Structure formats: structure tokens, C-alpha cells
Amino acid sequence: MSTMAKPKRFPLPSSLEVIAGTERTQAAYPYYMQFTREDDERFWFYNSMHFPAPMCVFDTITAEAAYCALGAANTRVHCLPTTLGIDYRIINGRIYIGGNAVTDPAEIARRTEEFKKRAFYYYANWERLFAQWKEKMMVLIRDAEKLRKVEIPEFEPLEHVHAGRGVASNHYLLDTYQKTLEGYYRMWQHHFEFLLLGYGAYLTFFDFCKKAFPEISDQTVARMVAGMQAEIFRPDDELRRLAKRAIEIGVDDKIREGCSPTDIIKSLEQLGDPGRAWLEELAVSRDPWFNINVGDGFYHNHRSWNDDLSMPFAALPGYIANIKAGQRIERPIEKLMAERKQLIEDYRELLNTDEERAAYDQMIELAHRVFPYVEGHKFYCEHWYTNLFFNKIREFGALLSTNGFFPDTEDVFHLTHFELEAAIVDLMTSWSNGSPPRGPSRWPALVEERKAAIAEWTKHDTAPALGPVPDVIDDPAIVMLWGITRDSLDAWLTAGDQPDSNEIKGFAASSGVAEGVARVVKSVDEIGRLRQGDILVCQVTNPSWAPIFQKIAAAVSDIGGSMSHAAIVAREFGLPAVVGTGRATQRIKDGQRIRVDGGRGLVTILQ
Amino acid sequence: MRSSENIRWFADITLQDRSAVGGKGGSLGELTRAGIAVPPGFVVRTGAFERFLAKLELEEPIRPRVESLRDDELEEITVLSQRVRARFENAALPQDLQSEILEAHAGLCGERPDSPLAVRSSATTEDAEDTSFAGLQDTFLWVMGAPATLKYVRSCWASLYSVPSIAYRRKHRIREDRVAMAVVVQQMVDARTAGVMFTRSPLTGDRSVITIEATWGLGSAVVSGEVTPDRFVIAKITGEISIRDISDKHIRHLPATHGGSGIDEVETPEEMRRLPSVSDDELAALRDLGRKIERHYGRPQDIEWAIDRNGKIFMLQSRPETVWSAKEAMPVARPAQDPHTHVMNIFGGRR
Questions:
Q1: How confident is the model at residue B232 (pLDDT cuts 50, 70, 90)?
Q2: Model confidence over A450-487: pLDDT tens digits?
Q3: Per-residue pLDDT tens for A276-302?
């Protein structure tokens, strides 16, 4: 008899150890994010999709606000029948999450009745409610832009006194801070107002396709549903426009590869009228379309194009060269839409009966109606609003840094949002009573310690999942948003069995095979290293990276799904792409030759 | 070239002629007429077989003897098979029939009387849809010259009386007068690569993919199962290649090294064994052909193909896919009164 392999299991949360020397930073995370003994009873997984790196203590607000809003929508607003919200914990800077499934049939039935009254109303009135959503978001964005500048004068301005305002500037520090947080939490409420319903309608069609065509690829279904004109595509479209204008105005020779944005802008300013004309065009594009950050909106250090022009300026020379070479660089929207229509018709024809075709028509119609939200919301939420939010926090960072709380503006992100409020109150007090603030003797050492903890945590991997292995993953939110199924758990359980394999699996995002030199790009500062024909290997292929797709041969990412915007753009460029590999940036060394098979989701290290 | 009483050229054949030219002959004619590249050839119609059989039966009955056997009487079947096959292979052919075949052979070979040919059995039954006969009768590859061609036409006729053929017909109680043999004679593709193609997934029945199996040399190595072929799964509509299993193709079927009729099984050179036997461009071309043929027939197909040494692709056979087509598929979904209720498949917890 053969010996049975020991059943594989994930470690229990209680067996995870906080890495030595980082205990105090771990303790700085809010108490409700810490694992407890009871958590051993439940299944958790590392949310590497949204939180691929250890989180600074402030940045955990992104998880907190997002899950508060997601849970509210699922549990209380739309009353999803089989799931409540999502719990989140953090250890060694890594965020683990777990779903709260509803399993009692009577409770599912009760929630189903509620769900139909709510969700079906949303589907029936989708366009009107979505238009209203955009208005709400714009009000929220304008309100955030209108928040007071974070400053405290030495003396209260005379006009305030003469006007009898009766409220001094220190009060407005707290007021602005609280409004900043309030707006951010509210933004996430808006974010989830439609999201699960949108994904659900999309997945309904997806599920149908997988049953009717068991071997259809995820990306083909995504192509049938994806629109082409969502806001998230605009930043890249603007770059193409700016490249064209540079040639028309005759300043294209100033926008060269390898020059810093500052130098280019300086040389354009010195050029006089033509230079200024192009810079005016740039200003038009920047507001609002450069409010796109180079990540997915969960880390303060993923700066926007507006805050760091290196990404857009790295892409401009390539677009200019392509136009001069006679290429049409505008995205061929009509052609892409015609292709989508043809694809839908061709698959429709393969169905067995007219009955199936009628059901297919109903499902694709709903998927098309909901998808503009699924595609469009990110620009407003994760990008535009999130940039405003982090930059407002930076204003507090600058003020506290000036007052000796810590050396650098960015250090503010090493305080939790509760600690930051305390520091603000500390400064308010000090400003009011003339005593020195207490913060400067407290925070610098803590900030140093926490920076060191993040650096240490970054060196360590973390388990993909914790706790008992569930028999099935029946939580639609988990399946929908993270693509986690029983199969992926089995893959995690057996991962590491072949550590020497030179193959890395991911999601097939865009077909084609390409070989080339890997450029492992860990931050946006490094994109200047990419040369024509290189293969981009990065943590997240975010829509804001799309402009550099013109010069690479293929793209590989740690995080992302086959319906991500990056995948859509890669398909438009005809660029092989494998996303969601988990650890390509760790496994692949810069300069190695690799092969990317985008149709199979496979990356092979060749040397 | 003109068809005659016993000879029918591919260009003159449609699927409707299957009772006279067999399933294989019918499909080659149908493909030729649909503008698909098929190696040129003709069919020796069942009438020729019937005439020869009638001549043989004048001396000694054949069909009644076969019908008198039970499928489990293997010894008796074996004795009868040997005797009948020998008679088909040795008795004199009616002179005019022989001339007709030789004339067609000369027409097919043109200036190169030694052109290599394939001589393939193309059996018929009353039920022309019944393809389970396939593989029970013989096919002869790389046949050179008129005498060899005549010899193998007779061998094909004779193979209708092979032990497995007789046993199969007895088991299924098929009446002998409902069975006849046509023979396909066509130019041989000197295949660099050959294989089979299904216009649906043999694993899941998915009609949106095309499965291609390919190996170096002649396709007989794949059909006979002597080599594990390269395997590709291609999306029918988008052309994405989702599976690309390149196997170790240790042997190849190639024209006989002695330069005469027949094929040899030879070891594949080490450096070729693990290389893909078809290029991506060829896969794309095969997909287009598979789609075209499927559309022509209006149903999924099981296709044999070959690529010659110049890279030209030929279709060697197409027959309806039978396994999945026979299954009664439940509809994946039905239209709903309120289209929104479809989302309960996702939200309703039935996953």
C-alpha cells in the first residue's frame, strides 16, 4: 500500500509570529485589525491583489474604509443572500481577509426576498442611478478640493478678528482633518454602491459562457463585455493627444527620452510662444486626467501623474516617434467596437438552440449596461479622490514636520489615523498655550522604528492563506473580487512543491508569445530603464502604466485579473500579458531572458 | 478527366453519392467541390466491387456463407476470411474493369506513372451515417505504379472480409447485400507533418475550440496511435492557442527507404523529436480550414490533414463528429421573463 501524503493545510493565525524586532509596530495597528485566538477557527487569505506590500500604519485606512463600505453594501444595503461583509486582519504588514458567508437556508431565503427588492431595482434603474452617482462623486471631489489649506499662522489674521469669527485656526486643523477622513470614508461608500451588483451581472454572463463553452478563455469573455471609452482610458488618450499637438506646434524635438520632466518643461518655457502653447495643452490634460496614480489606490506612495510627471513624460517620446513614423496612434474605437460585436455574434452562432441564444442575449445586454460603472468608477474613486486624500494628509505631514514632529513630510504615513489626530490635537494645544508640542520627543523614534519594520517585513514572504481549508468557496464576493476558488486553494497548498521550476503561472490576460529581456520594475522611478522590446515585470499593471506598453514586448505582473484595464489595453496593443502571477517580481531577476505566453498564462525563465 | 461507369473523379462526387463511393469517397468529393485543397484522385465505385463479387460468386457463394456465421464463431470466420480474401486477391479481374482502372490511374499520374498514391478503403452500408465501420478496412499508402495500384484495389475489396470486419457485421446483424466496398485512389501527400483535427473539444464537447493533433511525417502514425502527437487547442473564433503540448515524437512514418511501395516506421532524429511539428501560422491556417469545413457541413467535424514539404496544406478526410453530437445536451440557460433573475445564478448561492 502506498503511503498517503499528509493532508495539506494552511497555518493557523495563532502560529504566525510577528517578526522579531517589529512587535511594537505590529502593536501600532488598530486593535480591531489584530488576530485573536478565535480567528483560528476561520479561513483567511492574504489579499495580495490589493495589498501586495507591507502597509504603513496610516495606509491601513484604505482597507478599513473599503471593507466598512463593502460590508455595508453587501450586508445592509443590497442584502446579498449568501454573504455578509469581509473581515480584515493585519500581521507583519500583510492584510488577511475572510468572508462571512450566510449558510442557513431560511436566512438565505429571507435575504433573497430583500435582495430582489433592492438589487433588481438598481438593475432596472441603472443608468439613472449611475448618472446620479457621477454627480455625487463630483460633489465629493469638489468638496475635497475646497477643504481649507492646512496652516496655522503666528497670529490670527486681523480680518478674522474684526469679522468676529470667534473660532481660531487651530480648531480648523481638526475640522479639516475630520472632514478629510469623512470624505474618504464616504468615497468608499460610493465606490461600493454599484460594484458588487455590477460584477455580479458581469459574472452571470461569464458563468453562462463557461458552461456553454467550457474551454473559452477568461479574456475572451472579458473582450465581449469590455467597453472602450471608460474614463480610465482617458489619461492615456490624453498623452496621445499631447504627442500629436507637440508635433503640430513644432516642439516635439524638446520632448526627448531620458530628459527629466522638469528639464523638458524648463526648455519649453524658454522656447517662448510655441513652448507655452504646448504647456497650456498639458495643463488642460492634467486637470483632471493626470489625477491617475501609478498603483491601485491603496498606498500613499503610489503618486499620481500630476504629482510625478515621470510616467507620462516617459511615454510621450514613443508616441511622438510613432506618429512621425506614420502610425495612427489614436485608439481605433470604432474598429474595436466592431470586433466586440463580431465576437458576440460568432459565439452566439455556436450555441445549440434559439432558447440558449435568447438567454445569452439577455445576459450580455445586462453585462453591457452595468459595465460602464465597473470600468469607470476607479478613475473617480481609487485615483482622483484618493490622490486628493493622500495629498491632504501630506499637508498635515508638512505642517507637523515643520513643527519638529518628524523629519520628513512623508513620515506622516507612519502614524495611524488615530495617532495623527492625536498629533494634530497636540499641535493645536501647543499653538494655543505656547508650550512646546510633545510630539517631537515622541514621534521621530517611532517613525524610524516603523520604517525599519516595513523594510524588514518586505524581506519576508507570507502564507497565502491561514486556517482550516473550506470545502467550497461559496461566497460570491470572494469569488467575484478575488477570483478565489477551491482550485486556487489547492494550487496554494501544493505551491512550493517544485521550488526549482523555471515556470511561473498567472492569469492569461492577452494572447501571444514573446521572448525578451526582463526588466523588473519595482517603482515608477525605474520606468526610464525600459528599452524597446523589453519585457516589463512589475507588481501591478495599472491603467496608468498603459502608455509605456507601446515600447515593450510583453508584460508580466504579480497582481491583476484578466478583466483588469491593463489586460484590456494589452490586448489593444496586441501585447502578450500574464497577470496575477503572485511573485514574478521576486522570481525573475532583472536582465534574465524570459518567455511570456499570454494565451496560457505562463512565464518561463530561459536563463 | 471524365468519370465512367466504375470510376468517379472527386470533382464529380457529392455527399449524396455515398452509396456508390462510400463515406470516405463522398467526403473527399464534397471537400473538393467546396474548394478545399484535397490531393486529386478518383473512386472505384461499389459497382466494380459488386461486379467482381458476382463473378466470384458464380464459382462459389460468398455472401450467404458469411451470413450463415455467428459472430462468436471466430475459427470459422478466420477460415472463411482467408479463403475469400485469397480469391479477391488472386482471381482474374474482368478485362474491361481492369482497363478502366488503369486508364484512370494513367490520368491521375500523368507524366509520372510511378507517382506515389494512397489506395484507401471506402466502405458503404445502407445507413451512410454509420461511421463505426471506419478503421476496420485497410488503407495502403505510398503505392507506386499501375500493377501495385491494381493489387491494392483488390486488397481493399478483400479487406471487407477481414476477420474483424466480418465479426463486426455479424455482431450487428448487418445484411451482407447492404454492404459494399468502394476504393479511393488519390495522390499521396509527401507529408512533412500530418494529423487530425476536431472542430470541437473531444474532452468537453465545447464547440468554440478546435483540437489539433500533429506529428512529423505521415498521419498514419497518429491514427494508429503509435506516437503521442503534439496537441493544440485553439479558440475557433479568436484563434488563441490555449493548449500547446509538444510531445516526444520518437518515430515517424515515411515513404519506404527501398524506393518502392509502402511506408517505413523510422526513428525521429533527436533534434526534431521535441520540436513543434506545426507552426503557429499553420495552426491558424488549419483553424480557418476547420471552420470552413464545419460551416460547409453545418456540424462539427473530425478531419484528417497533411502538410507537404512545401508547406501546402491538404485535407485527407472529414467526417461528422459522432460522440458529442449524439448526446442530448441540456440547455445551459433559458430566457427569463425578468432578465434580472439570471443574476441569482451568481447571488443565489447555488455555486
A1: very high
A2: 999 999 998 888 888 999 888 777 677 777 677 677 77
A3: 999 999 999 999 999 998 778 899 998
Q: Which of B94, B116, B90 is nearest to B44 (CA)?
A: B94
Q: Do B342 and A363 touch (CB under 8 A)?
A: yes
CA distance A100 to chain B (A): 13
Gap between the Cα atoms of A437 and A423, Å rounded:
9
Q: In 3D, which of B211, B215, B169 has the Cα closest to residue B307?
A: B215
Which residue of B203, B295, B346 is the best one to mutate when testing the A interface, meaning the one whose CB has the most A CBs within 10 A?
A: B346
The CATH superfamily label for domain B7-187 reads ATP-grasp fold, A domain (3.30.1490.20)
The domain ranges of chain B are 7-187, 191-320
Alpha-carbon distance of B138 to B184, in angstroms, equals: 11
Closest-CA residue of chain B to A339: B238
At a CB cut-off of 8 Å and minimum separation 6, what does A115 contact? A78, A79, A80, A81, B347
pLDDT value of residue A497 = 47
- Interface residues on B facing A, Cβ-Cβ cutoff 8 A: 201, 203-209, 233, 235-238, 240-244, 280, 329, 331-336, 338-349, 351
Fold of B191-320: D-amino Acid Aminotransferase; Chain A, domain 1 (3.30.470)
Number of CB atoms found within 10 A of residue B86's CB: 12
**3 state SS of A64:** helix
Residues A397 and B205: their CA atoms lie apart, in Å, by 61
- Tell me how close the Cα of B242 comes to any Cα of chain A, in angstroms: 5
How confident is residue A528, by pLDDT bands cut at 50, 70 and 90? Answer: confident
Domain ranges of chain A: 13-116+461-488, 231-330, 501-605
Q: CATH 1.10.10.10: does it fit domain A501-605? A: no
